[in-house]
Amino acid sequence: MSGLDSGAAERRRQFAEEARSERPDLALLCLLLGAEAGPVGPAEAVPVTPGEPVPDPYGIDAAQIELDRLAGLLPYGSRSPAGWASALAELLGERCGFGGSSADYQRLDSSLLQQVLRRRRGLPILLSVVWIEVARRAGAPVYGVALPGHFVVGFGDREHPVLADPFAGGAPLTGQDAELLVTGATGAALEPSMMVPARPLEIVLRILNNIRAWAAARPERTDVALWAVELSLLLPSHPARLRYEHAQLLVQRGEFLRGAAEMEEYAEILAEIEPTAAENIRRKAHAARALLN
């Protein structure tokens, strides 16, 4: 992860620290993740006196303020889980226009919280993050539900939750609807384990996996793939194979020595479990070093 400027290195440090805290802040992690894509555009920045630096170039503070503002628009007073779901759908889905379509899957900014708040469009999981963070600030019993292929939100009793689909503007989901979503995505039946509330770090890793998948379909965007993998590696729990993916990306980007060294480190880890695979990776490391000749 060398080559980062001081600002980027500090954001990475903050991301790693927050990920290892006792109660990780989902919004902050998503905003630090979004900052990896670069500063917000000039037209989106807060107006300042000419010649002065933009005080919040990555939109992190502005996004937190916007989440607070949205939460403040919810009617005050106690309500049932169904009442919370209805209030969020009316505010975020109807009044504010948060939602998604198939076209949003083709855009990187659909996975960046700053941009989702600005555009009010995004992937199901990012729209769910908006719902979770707005509802949480207002005191709602809300949580994410990581259904395979389609992230939604739940309210109230986790054994019998009230479900809503932020991607569809907050449309309510019955148990049968959830079953159909899962069957359509996987061909399998809905399992009780799929309804367990998603923890913040699970949500962040799933967002990073989406970004990696987006970049993998665009070979010219190894820059995006690299930061997505590097952030994934900063999480306290991540698939070990990401270290090999990181090494491959370094080689693709011309950092042959670093890539080869990381391949060899990963091969050492793998050797006792899968010696044949480890030897194959060592050969790839040797080939990467040979590219310097």
TrEMBL record:
<comment type="similarity">
    <text>Belongs to the UPF0162 family.</text>
</comment>
<dbReference type="InterPro" id="IPR032698">
    <property type="entry name" value="SirB1_N"/>
</dbReference>
<dbReference type="Pfam" id="PF13371">
    <property type="entry name" value="TPR_9"/>
</dbReference>
<dbReference type="Pfam" id="PF13369">
    <property type="entry name" value="Transglut_core2"/>
</dbReference>
<feature type="domain" description="Protein SirB1 N-terminal">
    <location>
        <begin position="68"/>
        <end position="209"/>
    </location>
</feature>
<protein>
    <recommendedName>
        <fullName>Protein SirB1 N-terminal domain-containing protein</fullName>
    </recommendedName>
</protein>
